[in-house]
Structure formats: structure tokens, C-alpha cells
Design a protein that fits this description.
heterodimer; A: 399 residues; 10 strands; B: 231 residues; Rossmann fold; six-stranded mixed sheet; four-stranded antiparallel sheet; 7 helices; globular
């Protein structure tokens, strides 16, 4: 026990002599490790999203979206007509589509999905209470809605609750758990995340939620197709491409999101974030490491008499070198605990505000901690060697 | 006939310099018997400290032979020399060499930092050493808050916490007023009466008067100025 206490006292010796000197490298390393932990959280989040997208939709599903906002493209390239075309020509497959928008309900921004009755065949979101939308709702234009459980929790709305959307009133018919919007999240819009406030209404109801400009009634933001085949949806994708490529249907360029493209897109995004964030973190850590190295050199100079004393009392050169390596590792580890620990604690609260999915948890500390130990060792080796090589007699003359 | 605790035969020490080398000690022959109190006098730069560093195995001679407790130290590797030094030699430095942020007791315990002494035993020996120098009541006080005389007493306590065969003392009163210096000297005489061999370097002839044997170091050579040993 006393040995450990002595070791801790040895390590603290340098910091206690000149506490102001350690501020710069400490802050730099803490910042670098904060960035590194956030980058790791985003990368892990994207990986989880890819997995959950495939888990949610199955490997046999794909999505069709209009290409992202490009003014050169014709407006509203995807319509109900296209969804019907696919449904009519691919009778063995499940096809669903919806238009998405936003509205203010009770002062809260709510996602509104204009969906059809096939939604639950392709997106098997669990119904927690009530029922999903059905064919009668579409046919009769029933003023009903299925709301997300998070909206229900926030507002206290339950089955039968009348809610006003614009000038109209709909009644809550069901409550659904939006488990993941992984497939939607690869496009700029529509974007869905677990925990979003969502109201799903029959697509046959007018878009009374819409602000100016009012979208075409039959326009779509996304079409989903689930192939009956258990494996890759490749043949169905080819058939759908052929159908929508028919000039008669005047379909503008589309984005085809299959499980493979989804994983590839997320991987590409992950690599970009890893490159950019990693580079920033690496620069930060390199600069801090260099500052740490100079700090340790100054520390060795300031502690020459102490080195002489230690040698006189029986320390070997290796013992002397070890003090400075341990001191640097202790410093980097503390800075990492502060930086990466802050990131790990803040990410759960800020994840929803970030434009990318983020994984959270204290496992984010593992790589930064390992990096900090390596950083501490790497930038203290040279000062430690200098300290170990100081002749004890010379050191004592410095007294 | 007892084995000398320290013997030097034909020891020389020179240091490389831009124009050849600078000779600090030359042809030193010295034999110190156990229980002796030897004082090295001489002006600053005469080689006293270099001689103490050689005796403490902190430095290697450029020529000659050094034996500590009969063992030829030049035949030992660095690890063996370190082992011999930490178990048998104690040192007291002119400027005390205390760790200013640590307490008095922690400074004395520092003597055991590189030894395998059990914690409880080390603590007991450290407290005993502090009692010997009359600083038990200051044991928890930070070293930086002590006076010069108290700091020197802590340094002595550190050196004797593990009773050494040979205690090397470098200018122990150099930074102290005469009254405090006299108090410190009485501690060394008491240690010597308890059987600890002491070699003390000083340029203060009054301080040297306490020793049983006086050697003068001048221009790198040793000369006996009071009877009692072989030079």
C-alpha cells in the first residue's frame, strides 16, 4: 500500500512543482480526446444504424426516394401513380409509400406521415395500443391517426383523443413505437428517428398540415418494397427499375436504397467522419504531445537535484526514467478522463440534436484511454532517457 | 586488524575540458577505519565534494582503486554499486536536498524509497531518526516551512534513518548561522559516538575541530593535518 502511495507521490512531484505549466498540454489532450470520443461515437452510431436498418427492414427490402433537392430536376418526381405501378406489376411483393411533412401541434413540431394501409407490412413497427391504419381508413378518408409512443408520452394523448391538425380534427386510433428510421435517415428528407414525435394519417386525407407551398396531393417522399424472397432484393430492384424507367411514367432520377447501398453509404460517411474527425483529433493530440514533451524536458531540468538525491538513495537510471514516463502517462490519462469522459457523459443528452446517429456509453473511453497511454509514453521517452542519463554527481552539484 | 570502511589507493579524477582535461584529484591515498570521524577541509574547488562523490560511489575515478568495506567498487557494475550505496552509505548535502512539497516524515521515509524495508518498520525507523534530531513534533509539517537548521536536521534524520556504515556529509553548516551550526555538529558527534563512521567536508576550520582526524585537500591532493589515520 505504502509503495503505491510513494509511487503516486513521485508522479505528483512534477505537477506540484509547476502546476501552471501542465495547463496547456492538459487542456490540449482533453480537447483532442473529447473530439476523438465524439468521432468514435458517431462512427459507432453509423455502424449501429447500418445494422439496425438491415435488422428492421430485412435484407430483402429496399427504398426508392427522389434524388436530394436539385433545382434542375422536375418537381415532385415520385407520385402515388408510381407506387401503384409497382404494386400492380409486382403483386408478390409488399409495396408501401408515404409523404412526410411537419406541423405544429400544441406548440410542438410533429412529423406527419401520409401513409397507406401497407405501411405495417413493410415497416413492422410495433403497435402498442389500438390499431394500425387499414384499407377502410383509406377508402373512407377516415379522420384517424396513429401516433408515436413518444408523442403519446409527451402529450398524454391516448386512443380516442381528438387532435387538431390545421383546420381539421383527427382521432387517435393507435399508438406505435417508431423503433428506427434508419432507411429514411440516409436521405435529407424524410428523416425519422426513434423518439420522434410522429402522427401517421391516411394518405387519402388532404394535406391540411401543409404550409406553403402545398405539395401535390399524390406526391411521395419514399416508396418501400419488401421482396418475398428471403435473400437479396436484386431481381425485384431490377424489375422496379425497368417499370419506373418507362418514359410513359415520366419518372425523374431516383435514389435506390438497398441494404447493400445503405451499408456502403453509411460506410463512406463513416470513413469521411473518421478521416476528418480523426485528423483533427490527431493534430490536437500531436500538438499537445509536443507541448507535453517540452513540459517533461523542463520538468527534468527543474528536478535535477531531486534526481541526484534519488540516485544517492539508491535509484537506478531505469527508476529515474520511469518517474517521468509515469508522470506523463498519469497526466494524459487524467486529461483523457476529463475530455473523453465529458464527451461520453454529454453525448446521450445531445445525440438527438446532432445531424448524425451517435452511439453512447463509457466504452467510448477505451480507445482514448489506450491512446493516452501511448501518447504519454511516446512523448516522455526522450525526456525520461535524458533524466536517466544524468550523472548523479553532476546532478548533486546542481543542488 | 579491522578492514577499513573506506580505502582509496592512487585515486585520481579529471574531467574533460575544451583544452584537454581538468584534474580535480590526483594520487589520493586514504584509509578510514570504522568509527572514525574524519574532516576534509580546504578551500572551495579543492576537490572535497568530488572526493565525497567518489566515496559514495556516485562517481567513478579516472584512475586508482576504491574499496568500500573491503570490496573493490570498480569491479562492480552499476546495479551492484547502487545496491552497495543504498544499503551502506548515507549522505547529507549542503543545501539539504529536501522535497519541499512533502512533509518532514515523508522526506525521512524517502530514505527507504528504493529499499525493500517493510512499511511499518520503515515508519518506525524514520520516527526514531526524527526523535534523535528532535523533530518528532514537526513530522507532518511541509519541509518548505522549516528553518535552515531544521531542514538540515531533517536531512540528517533521512541519512541516519537506516543507520549507514559510512556517513558522508558535505558542508553541513555552510548555510547556517554559527549557533545552529554548533547544534548540528553536536548531532554528528553524537552519531559518531554511536559508532557511525563520518567523513565530513567543510571549509570551516572551527567545525573541523570537532573531528578526530583532519585532512586538508589542496590542489587536488590530501594532507593529514591532525594525527589519527593514514594518508
Amino acid at each position: 500500500m505504502m509503495r503505491w502511495r510513494l509511487l503516486v507521490l513521485d508522479i505528483r512531484e512534477g505537477a506540484r512543482r509547476h502546476p501552471s505549466r501542465i495547463v496547456l498540454p492538459f487542456a490540449g489532450i482533453a480537447l483532442g480526446m473529447f473530439i476523438l470520443a465524439v468521432v468514435l461515437g458517431i462512427v459507432a452510431g453509423l455502424r449501429q444504424q447500418a445494422h439496425s436498418a438491415i435488422a428492421e427492414l430485412g435484407v430483402n427490402s429496399f427504398a426508392i426516394l427522389p434524388l436530394a433537392d436539385d433545382p434542375s430536376l422536375p418537381a415532385l418526381p415520385l407520385t402515388r401513380r408510381h407506387a401503384e405501378l409497382l404494386r400492380g406489376n409486382l403483386p408478390a411483393e409488399a409495396v408501401t409509400a408515404y409523404q412526410a411533412g411537419e406541423s405544429l401541434l400544441d406548440g410542438k413540431t410533429v412529423r406527419i406521415l401520409h401513409a397507406d394501409e401497407y405501411l405495417w407490412r413493410v415497416r413492422p413497427w410495433p403497435i402498442l395500443a389500438g390499431r394500425p391504419l387499414d384499407a377502410d381508413d383509406m377508402r373512407n378518408r377516415t379522420a384517424v391517426a396513429v401516433i408515436s409512443d413518444s408523442l403519446s408520452r409527451e402529450t398524454g394523448w391516448t386512443i380516442g383523443q381528438a387532435i387538431s391538425i390545421g383546420p381539421e380534427t383527427v382521432r387517435v386510433a393507435g399508438i406505435v413505437s417508431i423503433e428506427s428510421g434508419a432507411m429514411e435517415s440516409v436521405s435529407a428528407s424524410p428523416r425519422l428517428s426513434p423518439g420522434d414525435r410522429v402522427v401517421i394519417v391516411p394518405w387519402t386525407l388532404p394535406a391540411y398540415w401543409a404550409q406553403s407551398p402545398v405539395p401535390r396531393e399524390d406526391s411521395l417522399d419514399i416508396i418501400f418494397v419488401r421482396s418475398r424472397a428471403a435473400e437479396s432484393p436484386g431481381p425485384v430492384v431490377s424489375a422496379a427499375r425497368r417499370l419506373l424507367g418507362d418514359p410513359h411514367y415520366a419518372c425523374a432520377p431516383l435514389s435506390w436504397i438497398t441494404p447493400a447501398t445503405l451499408v456502403a453509404q453509411l460506410q463512406k460517411l463513416r470513413q469521411r467522419i473518421l478521416m476528418a474527425g480523426g485528423l483533427l483529433a490527431a493534430l490536437c493530440l500531436l500538438m499537445s504531445g509536443i507541448t507535453l514533451g517540452s513540459l517533461m524536458c523542463a520538468n527534468v531540468q527543474a528536478r535535477i537535484p531531486e534526481i541526484g538525491l534519488r540516485r544517492a538513495l539508491g535509484a537506478s537510471p531505469a527508476d529515474i526514467g520511469l518517474i517521468f514516463v509515469l508522470e506523463a502517462v498519469f497526466l494524459t490519462a487524467c486529461a483523457t478522463l476529463l475530455g473523453a469522459g465529458t464527451a461520453a457523459m454529454l453525448l446521450p443528452f445531445t445525440a438527438r440534436a446532432l445531424p448524425v446517429p451517435v452511439a453512447t456509453g463509457f466504452s467510448l473511453l477505451l480507445l482514448p484511454m489506450a491512446t493516452s497511454i501511448l501518447l504519454g509514453i511516446a512523448f516522455s521517452l526522450a525526456p525520461a532517457r535524458i533524466a536517466a542519463r544524468i550523472a548523479p554527481a553532476e546532478a548533486l552539484r546542481n543542488e | 586488524m579491522t578492514t577499513p570502511i573506506l580505502s582509496m589507493e592512487g585515486v585520481a579524477r579529471w574531467f574533460p575540458a575544451p583544452n584537454g582535461s581538468v584534474s580535480v584529484l590526483q594520487d589520493i591515498h586514504l584509509s578510514v577505519e570504522p568509527g572514525e570521524f574524519v574532516c576534509l577541509t580546504g578551500p572551495s574547488g579543492s576537490g572535497k565534494t568530488t572526493l565525497l562523490h567518489l566515496a559514495a560511489l556516485l562517481d567513478r575515478p579516472s584512475a586508482g582503486c576504491i574499496r568500500l568495506a573491503g570490496q573493490d567498487v570498480l569491479s562492480l557494475d552499476e546495479e551492484q554499486r547502487t545496491g552497495l550505496r543504498k544499503h551502506r552509505v548515507g549522505m547529507v548535502f549542503q543545501r539539504f536536498c529536501l522535497l519541499s512539497h512533502r512533509s518532514v516524515l515523508e522526506n525521512v521515509l524517502f530514505r527507504f524509497r528504493y529499499l525493500d524495508t517493510p512499511d511499518r518498520e520503515a515508519r518506525s525507523m524514520a520516527l526514531q531518526a526524527l526523535e534523535h534530531v528532535g523533530l518528532t513534533s514537526h513530522s507532518d509539517q511541509p519541509a518548505r516551512l522549516l528553518s535552515g537548521g531544521e531542514m538540515q536536521r531533517v536531512a540528517i534524520a533521512r541519512a541516519i534513518a537506516l543507520p549507514p556504515d559510512l556517513l558522508l556529509v558535505d558542508e553541513p553548516t555552510g548555510n547556517l548561522d554559527p549557533a545552529t551550526g554548533a547544534g548540528i555538529m553536536s548531532h554528528f558527534m553524537e552519531l559518531n559516538r554511536r559508532g557511525i563512521t563520518i567523513i565530513m567536508a567543510t571549509h570551516n576550520t572551527a567545525v573541523a575541530g570537532h573531528a578526530g582526524r583532519r585532512l586538508e585537500c589542496r590542489a587536488g591532493r590530501l594532507r593529514e593535518t591532525a594525527p589519527g589515520g593514514t594518508v
